[in-house]
Specification:
Layout: E1 2-3, E2 20-26, H1 33-42, E3 47-54, H2 60-70, E4 74-79, H3 85-95, E5 100-103, H4 115-123, E6 129-133, H5 149-166, E7 178-181, H6 197-206, E8 212-216, H7 232-247
Parallel strand pairs: 1-8, 2-3, 2-5, 3-4, 6-8
Antiparallel strand pairs: 5-7, 6-7
Helix pairs in contact: 5-6, 5-7, 6-7
Length: 249
């Protein structure tokens, strides 16, 4: 069952030994890497940041090496060649040590200051998996910029199809922000290499005995001229993945 509550603060303090694992795929993000890492590290929650370079061809690897040498909570892993977001996430998930895992993109579209909002349903004991929706009403940031219409429309179509096949009632299946107890990974094996990881994750979560929540998040979509990588081809692949993972055990 999927819930869509208003964003609430955590109902209980963090356990003394709590650790959040932030898994961040990186591919040619030299322009934003330092800023996004600084934003993640600034969130006052005990955490480890797992950065997976997926065969970057720009200066990302050099920056990652510098960040790992500078900060003990930053761990870096590398793919020799580009294998796609799904493969990078799989590598990051395998390395996660925290009680809770959250996915973070390396661009600046998603705000790490939303981590407490994502964690709140889990810490209250109400959820095992939390989706951060770009389309739920967010009273904290009512005037934020919306995504381009075609991306918005495509997302809503894919989310509708995903809900149709999974029985969930999400507003934003394609969101980057997926936060979940690490135990969820024990029963969930990611096979996708590229952006089809989003519908695959959702389809497989829907088959597990877990509680799924949605909370509103802030979002600042970037344009293709700024490095946005998702295209209409990824939309077609996502539709195929929605159908495929509905019936694959």
């Amino acid at each position: 069952m999927t819930h869509s509550p208003e964003a609430q603060p955590a109902a209980k303090a963090l356990p003394a030994d709590f650790l959040l694992s932030v898994v961040m795929p990186v591919y040619n993000e030299q322009k934003t890497l330092r800023e996004i890492v600084a934003a993640v590290r600034a969130v006052p929650i005990p955490k480890e940041l797992i950065l997976v370079d997926d065969g970057s061809k720009d200066g990302s690897r050099q920056i990652l090496a510098e960040l790992a040498a500078q900060f003990p909570d930053v761990r870096v892993f590398e793919h020799p060649q580009n294998r796609g977001k799904g493969a990078a996430l799989r590598t990051g998930f395998e390395q996660a040590k925290g009680a809770v895992v959250v996915v973070q993109d390396a661009d600046l579209e998603y705000d790490p200051a939303d981590y407490p909002v994502l964690l709140a349903p889990i810490l209250r004991g109400d959820a095992d998996v939390v989706y951060g929706s770009r389309y739920l009403v967010d009273d904290r940031d009512p005037g934020r910029e919306r995504d381009h219409f075609y991306h918005y429309f495509g997302n809503r179509v894919l989310t509708f199809l995903s809900n149709l096949f999974t029985g969930l009632n999400l507003t934003d299946m394609e969101t980057c922000y997926k936060c979940f107890r690490r135990e969820v990974l024990a029963d969930l094996v990611i096979e996708s290499r590229r952006f089809t990881v989003e519908p695959e994750f959702t389809a497989k979560v829907a088959k597990l005995p877990v509680r799924v929540f949605e909370v509103p998040i802030r979002y600042q979509g970037r344009k293709y001229s700024e490095g946005k990588k998702i295209t209409w081809r990824d939309g077609i692949a996502a539709i195929w993945a929605i159908v495929k993972y509905r019936f694959v055990r």
